Amino acid sequence: MPNPLPALIVVDVQRAFDEWETAGKRRNNPDAVARIVDLLTAFRAHGAPIFHIRHKGTKPNSSFLPSRSGYAVKDEACEAPGEAVIVKHVNSAFIGTDLESRLRAGNITTLVICGATTNHCVETTTRMAGNLGFDARLVRDATWTFERIGPDGDTHSAEEIHAMTLSNLNGEFARIVTTHEVIASLEAVRQ
């Protein structure tokens, strides 16, 4: 029987992204981490499952090497005792990890996905969740990304990249939702 509660998947809320921003990379959605805290608080209050995903870099210059300060999780999004922490080495939280088997063992069918960055690890994890048959819900105000230079040298703003990623995922791989909608749906399950 499916678990009536969704699982919260918190992707890569690590200090490396703060370091990137300090170094001058421009991001969108400055309140995303505060929304992630809201989600963590609500899921904990409802006893809903939470999975924290950490990216462990493998390249010598990666900001996410365990020996570097960027690997650490941001304090405000730290796991509570008993919450699962899954370490990945590629963009998808499903590749090379036991995330899928844990979700299936818990009869979890609905995933609420948040974290960083929208167009990399969040997008890849969300696409795979949808392809694996999960009811994936990507939280638009609890994700963020950075501006990028395209193959033709054009600068694409973080806002544009975020919006396009949400558009690409919407309806095909996931439902795009807000933190408020997720918390309201948790309340509805409890009643």
From TrEMBL:
InterPro entries, alphabetized: Isochorismatase-like_dom (IPR000868), Isochorismatase-like_hydrls (IPR050272), Isochorismatase-like_sf (IPR036380)
Keyword set includes Ribosomal protein: no
Domain Isochorismatase-like per the UniProt entry, residue ranges: 7-180
Keyword Hydrolase listed: yes
Record keywords: Hydrolase
GO molecular function terms attached to this record: hydrolase activity
Record-given protein name: Isochorismatase family protein
Organism: Bradyrhizobium cosmicum
Origin organism lineage: Bacteria, Pseudomonadati, Pseudomonadota, Alphaproteobacteria, Hyphomicrobiales
